[in-house]
């Protein structure tokens, strides 16, 4: 059970005023009161101040019901909070945290008024996530005591707090609020003053690209969101997250970032302006990218854009047997997936030995599943029996679907598709697992480009639920329908996208990773702070540098080069630091050193 701290354990910041009692201000008030602080909540609206007090009563009652607070502790927490509309109530505060709307005019006015109210030593913290802390501080009578203290929503649950100093901020003020954040049970990350700081600086560029991708009708909102949840393990898809944050808020943040960086990746997608000006700001208005049950509701309801359930208009082709070309981790994983679903699988490699080794790898994987109780030994043996290794692609003569998972090299793939064209029977579907190369180039290496499609599995294929289904302008409708049906049978979630670099996941993921590298190059934040910020503030399962080292820096560089070449956007140019590390042979975990060093096995 969480017990509020006694007064003797508190830092010098004992009395804290929170100005602006919206969702964030109310959450911060709760965090402070539970940690033993005296809190003065102030809002220009009497009704909003009352709603904030009511929300605190409700949340603490819920905490009692869940055994996280006793009734006495709840009474103590509520007793430490007083709310009102008069800014002069902040006169006794050791620290004031403003979380008023993201507007220079409003924030300047609040800070100027506070200058005439608080004691000279009182620290003034702005909760902005988009505006310049330096600009806000410069207008204050004592700029050395102004800094940024950026909590994340919902403040009681989210661990990250970004402590933002400007060139004017006194080190003592930074130390005091950093200590406070630790005492609140938060993890403070020290960052410099630039729009978006670390977490939002990386997050909003990604959200903006997702909005632009949707606006271009490249993929549906459902497929974009499912791709990022299932392909990257994110708690929410980007368009659903924009609706939660507020599309108007996101637009404001991006405009501030673009004004500073002039990076086209930060220039707000036009759809954000259109939705904002139409009042379609997301959950709070009841409609944004999605439609909600009511304003403020999290429940999505169907609308004109919701995909219809039911059978596809075009029936697919019959698939009983599958050929998998390749002998690496991806090829063996895909073969395992198809065999588990009951398909007869021919696993072909450049030699019989390589194919046998790939089958043996599958056997070990199945044994691990048996050991974990996920399947019986009998089912594992039956699955393995469905896989026939072969040392030649001639063994694909009778397969209904051929899936290649060979090296990510266009010439290698073209040669393979030329071979498949000669070997596979008429009507067989030919699929490539490429993650970044043009599917149409593989298709044109055959005499039947209408039968060629992309099936981008994610590694490890047995565990990852996502498959990006990539149609070219030449792909036949029944071939697309066939692959969708097959994905359902192998229990994968298929998302549709067109044949352009990166498809959905890599096109959104790698610019984000590249921007993280640029932050380190510019000495803006450390690897550890950036990784912590994205895990704690964005809910990412791994920080960007952890992920880069797992993926492989050479693989990451190759994908970033493909994206830069296709979209011709200067902001997508690979960060020089990434190129230097690859040139030095520091490729991540597989070489024992990438952005970090690893113990060699």
From TrEMBL:
Task: List, alphabetically, the InterPro entries matched.
Answer: 3-OHacyl-CoA_DH_NAD-bd (IPR006176), 3HC_DH_C (IPR006108), 6-PGluconate_DH-like_C_sf (IPR008927), 6PGD_dom2 (IPR013328), NAD(P)-bd_dom_sf (IPR036291)
Q: Where is the 3-hydroxyacyl-CoA dehydrogenase NAD binding domain?
A: 15-193, 322-499
| Domain of life assignment | Bacteria
Record-annotated 3-hydroxyacyl-CoA dehydrogenase C-terminal domain positions: 196-292, 502-598
> Keywords assigned by UniProt?
Oxidoreductase
Concerning its family, UniProt says: Belongs to the 3-hydroxyacyl-CoA dehydrogenase family.
Provide the protein name.
3-hydroxybutyryl-CoA dehydrogenase
Q: Which organism is it from?
A: Streptomyces hyaluromycini
């Amino acid at each position: 059970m969480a017990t509020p701290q006694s007064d003797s354990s508190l830092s010098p910041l004992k009395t804290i005023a929170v100005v602006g009692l919206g969702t964030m201000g109310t959450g911060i008030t709760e965090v402070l009161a539970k940690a033993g602080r005296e809190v003065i909540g102030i809002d220009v609206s009497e009704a909003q101040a009352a709603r904030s007090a009511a929300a605190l009563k409700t949340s603490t009652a819920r905490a009692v019901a869940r055994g996280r607070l006793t009734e006495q502790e709840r009474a103590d927490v509520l007793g430490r909070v007083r709310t009102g509309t008069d800014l002069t109530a902040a006169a006794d505060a050791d620290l004031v945290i403003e979380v008023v709307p993201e507007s220079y005019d409003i924030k300047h006015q609040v800070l100027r008024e506070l200058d005439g109210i608080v004691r000279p030593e009182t620290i003034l913290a702005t909760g902005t996530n988009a505006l310049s802390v330096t600009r806000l501080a410069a207008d204050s009578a004592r700029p050395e005591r102004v800094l940024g203290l950026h909590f994340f929503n919902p403040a009681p649950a989210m661990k990250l707090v970004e402590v933002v100093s400007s060139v004017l901020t006194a080190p003592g003020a930074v130390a005091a609020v950093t200590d406070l954040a630790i005492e609140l049970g938060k993890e403070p990350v020290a960052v410099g003053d630039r729009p978006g700081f670390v977490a939002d600086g990386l997050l909003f560029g990604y959200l903006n690209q997702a909005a632009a991708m949707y606006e271009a009708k490249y993929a549906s909102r459902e497929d974009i969101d499912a791709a990022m949840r299932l392909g990257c393990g994110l708690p929410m898809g980007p368009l659903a997250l924009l609706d939660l944050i507020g599309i108007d808020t996101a637009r404001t943040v991006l405009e501030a970032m673009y004004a500073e960086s002039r990076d086209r990746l930060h220039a707000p997608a036009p759809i954000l302006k259109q939705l904002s000006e139409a009042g379609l700001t997301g959950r709070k208005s009841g409609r944004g990218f999605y439609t909600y049950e009511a304003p403020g509701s999290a429940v999505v309801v169907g609308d004109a854009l919701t995909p219809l359930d039911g059978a596809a208009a075009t029936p697919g082709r019959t698939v009983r047997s599958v050929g998998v070309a390749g002998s690496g981790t991806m090829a063996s994983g895909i073969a395992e997936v198809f065999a588990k679903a009951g398909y007869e699988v021919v696993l072909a490699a450049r030699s019989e030995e390589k194919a046998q080794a790939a089958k043996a790898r599958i056997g070990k994987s199945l044994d691990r599943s048996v050991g974990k109780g996920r399947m019986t030994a009998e089912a594992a043996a039956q699955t393995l029996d469905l896989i026939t290794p072969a040392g030649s692609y001639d063994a694909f003569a009778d397969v209904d679907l051929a899936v290649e998972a060979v090296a990510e090299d266009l010439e290698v793939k073209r040669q393979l598709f030329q071979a498949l064209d000669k070997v596979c029977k008429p009507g067989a579907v030919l699929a490539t697992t490429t993650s970044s190369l043009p599917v149409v180039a593989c298709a044109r290496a055959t005499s039947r480009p209408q039968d060629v499609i992309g099936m981008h599995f994610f590694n490890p294929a047995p565990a990852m639920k996502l498959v990006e289904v990539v149609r070219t302008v030449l792909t036949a409708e029944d071939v697309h329908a066939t692959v969708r049906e097959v994905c359902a049978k192998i229990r994968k979630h298929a998302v549709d996208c067109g044949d352009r670099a990166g498809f959905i996941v890599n096109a959104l993921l790698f610019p984000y990773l590249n921007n993280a590298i640029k932050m380190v190059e510019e000495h803006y934040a450390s690897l550890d702070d950036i990784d912590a910020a994205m895990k704690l503030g964005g809910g990412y399962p791994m920080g960007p540098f952890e992920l880069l080292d797992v993926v492989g820096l050479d693989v990451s560089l190759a994908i970033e080069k493909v994206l830069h070449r296709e979209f011709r956007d200067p902001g997508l140019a690979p960060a020089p630091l990434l190129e230097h590390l690859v040139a030095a042979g520091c490729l991540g975990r597989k070489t024992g050193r990438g952005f970090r060093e690893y113990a060699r096995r």
